[in-house]
Amino acid sequence: MVGWRYFQTKDLTMAGSVKAKTPSPKNVPYTVAGDTLADIWADIEKKGPKVNGKNRAGKTVAKGDANPNCGFKVKEDKKKGVFICDLATSVVNVSLVDCTIDHPKLKSDKNLSAKAKKEWKRFMKELMVHENEHVTAMIDEMKALGKEVVNITKQVEDADKKVAQEKALKEWETDVLAKIDTSTIEARLEKVNKALDSKTGHGPVLDTSIP
User: Between 133 and 22, where is the model more confident?
Assistant: First the structure.
């Protein structure tokens, strides 16, 4: 989802800014059951969301959203007989939309031992911490993208004032779209998610040896 505003300004000296909106992920539980932790883990392996082709306990997904605005200033160089249009990105609003966390929900723990109940609670707490780390990694990547976009500037000269403005805007749009294209953002977010899972091993491990 992209969009922008284009407006005239008298001052292009101030650096552009990136504004990020931190998402509130929607929890999407799936029910698992078992009389032992080993049984429960087997159910997770059967019902859990797929990540890179393999069922995992949890999965976090989101779409990146970037909306840049730009400002321009036009001055006339009478000696050269041209109008000079300076265009700069003023602000980039970034966020995550449709952010969800799939995670297991135990149907009942009545048949688990006290030690097994404690282990399940530990596992779930650490799993949700891990999944929220994915949220943080993705919004950080969107902030990084915003910083790249906010540095995009253009300067175009033309004998026609309107043409100078149109050319500057077209060049800016081309470079911005290359950064905030939906497929480009998806690839960036997928990369940071894979990097996090590679580093952490897809989150905590449930100790199924506990009776």
Answer: 133
Beta-strand pair 26-32/6-8 = unpaired
Cβ–Cβ contacts within 10 Å for residue 54, how many?
A: 10
Where residue 2 falls among pLDDT bands split at 50, 70, 90?
very low
CA–CA separation, 100 and 136 (whole Å): 13
Is the separation of the CB atoms in 18 and 150 below 8 Å?
yes
pTM of the model: 0.89
At 193, list the tokens.
Answer: 């998610």
Looking at residue 110, its amino acid is K
* C-alpha distance from residue 115 to each of 11, 57, 109, 205, 209 (Å): 65, 20, 11, 16, 11
Residue 169 main-chain phi, psi, to 5 deg? -65, -40
